[in-house]
Structures are given as structure tokens and as C-alpha cells.
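Priority: medium. Attachment 1 of 2:
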């Protein structure tokens, strides 16, 4: 059996469990299928996810349901302006009886960490979270503690209310593999939400266990992506740095484009998207489907583009439309 056939076989064996997890999440979450799929892609590709949307769109519910359906340790922390790094990562407590320090681990030591309203915490807390997100470890005193596997940060932020908030540093925003923009439900979905709130379901049943998730992450890393597809990804990311090369009408629309980290994220997310579609190989359609979520937070527009009412999503959409695979 070839390597490709082996990957296909493992995808076929594992994919039904993720479909079962989707069904479990749907018991408490109406609609929002795209958000759930993107959260699963973040988990499969070992990347963190930033979810942006106004309050009341079930962002927190979705994350809690994800952790329950996958039987993962879940921790939620409400970010506030008075939050300290120790409230997140833990601290060392002095024991006067024997003159030693005992380590108290913080809520970051969980497999799924929900950072609610992440932009309400000051820079020193953001820095503490940054090490955890990038290095997947925490330093307390003179010791370094590895975080559990998998480790997934799912952060939410409100795009409207900016009073009492701290803009996320560019370095931290870039650490998020995906940035999702959650919108209002349809009229029919909103009616279903009201009905569900009056009769909430029992606790969700795990659709899989830790071994299955770690195995799925390994399979995703082995999903076939040809050299031509990799070149296509690189061309898309490079076009964000100088979009006029693919569409002259964009002119100087971009101040700062996506870094090579975006290329890595786009390749990993495309593989995970293919996995959820039940395939052992990635296609250009996977790249186009996941591209906006990987790139929207990595493209900084020029003043002129913002003055013209253009958004980073507009630029990314135009680039994905214009760049062709050779």
C-alpha cells in the first residue's frame, strides 16, 4: 500500500468521528456550521483561532460545545483590564513552613483555552499568553512547564465596543492561524435559538477521545499537497505584499502584507479542510475556501485604501480571484 493510499484509509477511518462531533455540537448550537468547521480546522492543524463578532452570537457556546464533544479539558478566562499574568499562567507560592515555593498552575494549563474578550487585557497579560501560544510552554520562576497536547487557544473579541480595550499586538495577532468573522443568524435560525433556549439539551457526549484527535493531527500533516499547490499558496501570500502585481486597481492598497508564517498556516489549514471533506489530498478549492480566514488579519491596509472604504477582506478576495495556479 502506497503512502497516499494509507493516508486515504486513515482519513476514511477518522472522518466519521468528526462528523459525529459536528452532530453533537449542533444539539446546542443552531447554524454557525462554518464557525464550527473552522474551529475543528484550527484543532486539526494545531493552530489557534480568533473569533470576532458582536455579543450574543454563541461564540462561547460553540467553544464549550467543541471541548465537550471532543472530550478535552476546557478552561475559560474572562479577560479584564485588571487581569495579571499570574491569573493566566499561574504563580509560585511561598511555603513558610519549609521555606520552599510551591507552583500553582493557572487556567492556561488546559487543552482548550477560551480567552473571552481577549482585547480587554493589558500588554503584560498578552505577552504571557504569547509564549504559551507560540512555544506551547509556560515559564514559572526558574522552571518551564510544557502545556498539554493538543493545546488550542480560542479567543473572542468584540469589534464594535472599543472603550476599555487594548489593541492586540501585531505579533500576537499573527500567532492566530485563523480569524473568523461571525455574523447574525438567519430569521429561521433565530427562531430555533429561542426554542432551544427554552429546552436546553443535556450535556454533550464525547464523539471521540484524545488518541483519535492526536492521530487525526498526524494524518492531517501527511495529507498530500503537491509542489504546484505549494507554489500556488506562496504566490497568493506574496501577492498580499504587493497586490498591484495581480490587480493594478489595488495600487498601493496594502501597507504590510502577510509573512511566511501565513504560507505555513495556509498550507496546514488547507490540509485540514481536505481532511474534513474526507480527502487525503489538498486541492486549490481548499486553499480558496480557507484563504480569507488565514489572511484577513495579516493584511494591513494603507490609509488611502481605508479612506476609500476598502477592507482587508476585499483585498484578500480580489487576490484569491486573480492568482492562478500554474
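Attachment 2 of 2:
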Amino acid at each position: 500500500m502506497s503512502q497516499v493510499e494509507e493516508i486515504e484509509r486513515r482519513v476514511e477511518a477518522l472522518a466519521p468521528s468528526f462528523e459525529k462531533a459536528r452532530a453533537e455540537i449542533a444539539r446546542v448550537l443552531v447554524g454557525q456550521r462554518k464557525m464550527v468547521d473552522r474551529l475543528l480546522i484550527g484543532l486539526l492543524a494545531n493552530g489557534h483561532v480568533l473569533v470576532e463578532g458582536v455579543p450574543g452570537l454563541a461564540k462561547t457556546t460553540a467553544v464549550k460545545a467543541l471541548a465537550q464533544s471532543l472530550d478535552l479539558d476546557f478552561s475559560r478566562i474572562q479577560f479584564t483590564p485588571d487581569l495579571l499574568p499570574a491569573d493566566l499562567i499561574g504563580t509560585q507560592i511561598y511555603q513558610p513552613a519549609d521555606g520552599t515555593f510551591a507552583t500553582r498552575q493557572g487556567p492556561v494549563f488546559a487543552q482548550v483555552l477560551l480567552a473571552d474578550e481577549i482585547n480587554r487585557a493589558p500588554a503584560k497579560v498578552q505577552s504571557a499568553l504569547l509564549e504559551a501560544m507560540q512555544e506551547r510552554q509556560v515559564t514559572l520562576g526558574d522552571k518551564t512547564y510544557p502545556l498539554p497536547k493538543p493545546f488550542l487557544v480560542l479567543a473572542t473579541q468584540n469589534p464594535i465596543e472599543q472603550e476599555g480595550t487594548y489593541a492586540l499586538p501585531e505579533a500576537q495577532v499573527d500567532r492566530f492561524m485563523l480569524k473568523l468573522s461571525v455574523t447574525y443568524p438567519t430569521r429561521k435560525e433565530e427562531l430555533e435559538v429561542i426554542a432551544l433556549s427554552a429546552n436546553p439539551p443535556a450535556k454533550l457526549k464525547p464523539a471521540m477521545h484524545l488518541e483519535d484527535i492526536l492521530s487525526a493531527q498526524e494524518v492531517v500533516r501527511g495529507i498530500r499537497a503537491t509542489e504546484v499547490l505549494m507554489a500556488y499558496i506562496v504566490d497568493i501570500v506574496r501577492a498580499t505584499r504587493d497586490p498591484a502585481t495581480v490587480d493594478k486597481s489595488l495600487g498601493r492598497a496594502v501597507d504590510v502584507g502577510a509573512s511566511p508564517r501565513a504560507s505555513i498556516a495556509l498550507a496546514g489549514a488547507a490540509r485540514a479542510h481536505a481532511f474534513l471533506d474526507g480527502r487525503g489530498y489538498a486541492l486549490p478549492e481548499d486553499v480558496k475556501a480557507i484563504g480569507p480566514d488565514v489572511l484577513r488579519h495579516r493584511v494591513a491596509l494603507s490609509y488611502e485604501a481605508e479612506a476609500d472604504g476598502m477592507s482587508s477582506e476585499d483585498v484578500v478576495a480580489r487576490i484569491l480571484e486573480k492568482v492562478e495556479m500554474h
